[in-house]
Input
Amino acid sequence: MMLRLRVHHLFCSALFVGKGYSESFCENMQKIVQWLWETSSQGEEREVELISGEDSICKECPNLTKEGCSLEDNHVVSKDVRLAQALQLQTDRSYSVSALLGHVAQNLTEEIFETSCHKCEWYRMGLCSYAKLADKYSNYSGI
Output
């Protein structure tokens, strides 16, 4: 299975606590979080296609319309592009899960987190912080 993941979901998936836009969104997100963050018992290397558009998480979001995300004029696409640049990642490219998470761990800074997340409703609710994200990524070494 290849997971399609938009760049900012590298942060959201790491800090997901069961809250979301709808029950189906939360169920889908939980499955993706487990797939992405839990080590495979068979040791196979999983692949992620990093994108700046609708991904495997978005497909269950009630804010997704035929025109894209209905939140704030689809600002999430520009958020993904800026975050990819800040983390030195390429979109429309496949990465192994371990290499991708390791790369983010090496490049993550508080400034990158704050710039990317400060307008997000989950951040404003106190569900996310740089300290929590850095702790989650501390288990990964770089590519």
The beta strands are 2-6, 47-51, 64-65, 68-69, 93-96. The chain is about 45% helix and 15% strand. The first helix runs from residue 9 to 15. Helices lie at 9-15, 23-37, 75-87, 97-107, 110-117, 121-124, 130-137.
